[in-house]
């Protein structure tokens, strides 16, 4: 499946939205799903905190089925906890020691849907700014073609996911072992290069950040935009997101 340029380099590309995924589907060994604000940051925080697994579900109805089966369930829509559910999508909700060793089913507006859309790929991992360097190092070690799938907002482009995808593409290309073909990847790299070192400042006007700010979720925003807080790499195995074993 690896498309080698003169058989020396692998490809790393950035896909702006799940809507565009069909253009990339089946061409990449590894898909990194990104939802910086907040789904993949919350999932990283959960796995880093020692949850056994996070089960990504796309609809509230599916989440209710898990709830009926006695699972812990997190559900978020429009940035808010869905009525009738205990937890939403705040990374802090998943730092509760009570959750260690537990399994949680989670549905969010965009992130969990993007994970399920990518689930046909050979390998699906969870990327965010908080585990960025760990993801880059692991991808470099794999020597395979990589797609960064941005969750966006309701199939629309968003800044923070694109910047995270751009950071991964930029770092892999700088190793000399990867190349990109798509303009989406070039644009993502340029956005990253102009935002690096100041994500909080650069993303002041991002639409979802403004949405979360209105919900007084500044603490979540700061957490999700602070890079390299952990080296955990969550991976999708048989429909469940678990900790990648070294
Ligand atoms: C999403 O899946 O759209 C986001 O993660 C929503 C959020 O957490 O605010």
The secondary-structure class comes to: alpha/beta
As an assembly, this protein is: single chain
Helix-strand pattern:
EEHEHEEEHEHEHEHHHHEE
Q: Which strands sit side by side, in order, in the main sheet?
A: 7-2-8-1-9
Number of helices: 9
On the 0-100 scale, what is the average pLDDT? Answer: 96
Radius of gyration: 17 Å
Strand content: 15-25%
Approximate helicity band? 25-40%
Low-confidence stretches: 1-5
Gross geometry: globular
Number of strands: 11
Bound molecules: D-malate
Span from first to last CA?
Answer: 24 Å
Could you give a short account of the major beta sheet?
5 strands, parallel
Walk me through the structure:
By secondary structure, this protein is α/β, with parallel strands linked by helices. The protein is 35% helix and 20% strand. It is built from 9 helices and 11 strands. The protein has a 5-stranded parallel sheet with strand order 7-2-8-1-9, with helices on both faces. A 4-stranded mixed sheet has the order 3-6-4-5, sandwiched between helices. Strand 4 (72-77) and strand 5 (80-81) form a beta hairpin. The longest helix has 15 residues, at 159-173. It is globular. The two termini are 24 Å apart. Residues 1-5 have low confidence and may be disordered. The structure holds D-malate. D-malate (MLT) binds at residues 35, 37-39, 76, 79, 89, 108-111, 151, 212.
Q: Secondary-structure map with pairings?
A:
Blueprint: E1 10-15, E2 30-34, H1 39-48, E3 53-56, H2 60-68, E4 72-77, E5 80-81, E6 103-107, H3 111-118, E7 123-127, H4 132-142, E8 146-150, H5 159-173, E9 178-179, H6 183-195, H7 199-202, H8 207-214, H9 218-224, E10 234-237, E11 240-243
Parallel strand pairs: 1-8, 1-9, 2-7, 2-8, 3-6, 4-6
Antiparallel strand pairs: 4-5, 10-11
The site of D-malate (MLT) has 13 residues, from loops.
